[in-house]
Hints:
Structural class: alpha+beta
Strand order of the largest sheet: 3-4-2-1-12-11
CATH topology: Deoxyribonuclease I, Chain A
CATH class: Alpha Beta
Shape: globular
Largest sheet: 6 strands, mixed
Number of domains: 1
Order of helices and strands: EHEHEEEEEHEHEHEHEE
Helix content: 10-25%
Number of helices: 6
Amino acid sequence: MVKVATWNVNSIKARLGHVLDWLETAKPDLLCLQEIKCPATDFPTLELTSAGYHAEILGQRAYNGVAILSREPARDVLRGLPGGDGDEQARYLEATVAGVRVAAIYLPNGNPVGTDKYDYKLAWMARLARHARTLIDSEQVCVLAGDFNVVPTDDDVYDPVAWRDDALCRPETRAQFRRLLHMGFIDAFRVLHAEPHRYSFWDYQQGRWLRDQGLRIDHLLLSPQAADRLVAVDIDREPRGCDKASDHTPVWCELAL
DNA sequence: ATGGTAGCCTTGCTA
């Protein structure tokens, strides 16, 4: 069995204790991190190595940054999403671990709509779709894991009307996300959970966590070969309730490999 | 209409 997880930690330095606690209790074989918010030189590799995990890092000062933690060392590491000539933002890291080709994804937020930020989001999603096609064609066990900054349907947000014009919910955003589904990637959570209003992110403001007013934007997209092996998947809400929590909580799945 | 929170690192940006 291989357990794969994703977690936007909103600064690895601020969240190191939470991450170490979660690794110890959840024991994932693979954990994709987003928003580590530091260069690789500042990443707490030593502490994570002591906890039994290797770390592959694509860092960036202050913003963004992704990493892959794994019990087995990673092979064939790809740093950055192909096709991004001159793209400085650290948002994509891909590697093979324990028979799984995994991608740690921090997809651009895109707000406000109507600015270059939204254009960048849609262009980034088009690039992701092009690269995802090559992953599908490779017929590997593959998991796209990360903060997609996409609310797939109105069942995945507490107030769809209020969020209708947000970059995370816009029809163009959802259509780009569905391109990944149409080419054969499967939303792991929805394979085993039909219930609406299950969230992976709650804003720090306005008591969103206390009122369970969140969004489901952290996803595990499985290639057909991975989906065939899916035995369990869930969102672990517990870390979101801790003191000094990230605004996101881990999503995990188990593959029978 | 505004500001509410958090992290980074400034005097604002990103989310």
